[in-house]
């Protein structure tokens, strides 16, 4: 048996007196030199903003841009509201006055009675409510299937849905009208019925994309735990996915209602009967017989529901649109 000699290990060289211990990684880089601070580039350099003249110019430009865009968006609303309170002579005055000479609030009651806005509002509310229910029933289930059930050719189906967003609405107006006029397979004529509004409103690729993006952010472990407990796909959708997805469902609901409320061309084609007209089509059909201030008052009444919905739920809309965009 051969003798094995073990070489003694050399001790580590002792540090010189007064020298600092060796550093690695970030500490070593800091020792060699300070890390450069992150640079943020913009239209105005930080050096310019530090000078008094640069700050003054910056704030002048910022305030001018904000005020200009605010006036551009708010002035049409102001002109619509005050135009209803003016007399026909005041509206025909050239150049027009910025402030009305007299305020006549009775014009709103006159517009309500003469244009039969109660019936038109009721019809529009029926169309918007039905479109909301069909949109949630069809788009939520489609987005859930594409996101969590992963069917065969699911990506292809999603791509075709998103491709419809690139087609101008006026291009598919005639095919959609012919489809509603003679529904394939069944042969039903859906003109002058709420189905002509409900079914096209439910097939929306943008809503499906928003819902799918949110469903993708839901942890898959949560759904797998429910599957282990014996829950079916329908049960998981109803008890887990829908309660978690309230923000994006609220956004889709608001957008679908507002879209049906303000639509004009499609209801004009599929609802020619005066008893079934939406409020936008009804006001347009009677506009030639009404004074201009009465017509503007009717437009104000028709716009109020959509404006109120937007201002009340604007935080929910922005929160729902950004929800699910970041993971982790």
TrEMBL record:
It is a multi-pass membrane protein. The chain crosses the membrane at residues 56-81, 125-146, 153-177, 197-215, 236-261, 294-313. Residues 1-44 are annotated as: Disordered. Its main location: membrane. Keywords: Cell membrane, Membrane, Sugar transport, Transmembrane, Transmembrane helix, Transport. Belongs to the binding-protein-dependent transport system permease family. This is Multiple sugar transport system permease protein. It comes from Streptosporangium album.
């Amino acid at each position: 048996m051969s003798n094995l000699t073990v070489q003694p290990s050399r001790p580590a060289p002792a540090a010189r007196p007064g020298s600092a211990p060796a550093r690695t990684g970030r500490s070593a880089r800091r020792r060699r030199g300070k890390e450069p601070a992150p640079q943020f580039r913009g239209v105005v350099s930080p050096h310019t903003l530090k000078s008094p003249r640069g700050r003054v110019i910056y704030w002048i430009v910022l305030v001018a841009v904000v005020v200009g865009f605010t006036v551009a968006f708010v002035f049409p609303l102001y002109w619509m509201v005050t135009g209803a309170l003016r007399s026909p002579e005041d509206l025909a005055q050239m150049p027009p006055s910025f402030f009305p000479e007299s305020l006549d609030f009775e014009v709103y009651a006159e517009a309500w009675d003469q244009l039969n806005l109660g019936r038109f509002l009721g019809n529009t509310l029926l169309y918007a409510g039905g479109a909301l229910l069909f949109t949630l029933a069809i788009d939520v289930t489609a987005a859930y299937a594409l996101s969590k059930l992963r069917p065969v050719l699911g990506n292809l189906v999603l791509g075709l849905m998103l491709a419809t967003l690139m087609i101008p609405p006026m291009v598919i107006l005639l095919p959609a009208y012919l489809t509603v006029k003679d529904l394939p397979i069944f042969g039903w004529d859906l003109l002058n019925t709420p189905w002509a509004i409900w079914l096209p409103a439910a097939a929306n690729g943008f809503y499906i994309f928003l819902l799918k993006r949110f469903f993708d952010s839901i942890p898959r472990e949560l759904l797998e735990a429910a599957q282990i407990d014996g829950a079916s796909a329908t049960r998981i959708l109803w008890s887990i996915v829908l309660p978690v997805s309230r923000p994006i469902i609220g956004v889709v609901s608001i957008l679908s209602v507002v879209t049906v409320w303000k639509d004009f061309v499609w209801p004009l084609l599929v609802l020619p009967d005066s008893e079934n007209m939406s409020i936008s089509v009804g006001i347009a059909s009677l506009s030639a017989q009404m004074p201009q201030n009465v017509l503007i008052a009717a437009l104000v009444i028709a716009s109020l529901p959509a404006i109120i919905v937007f201002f009340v739920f604007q935080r929910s809309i922005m929160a729902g649109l950004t929800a699910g965009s970041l993971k982790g």
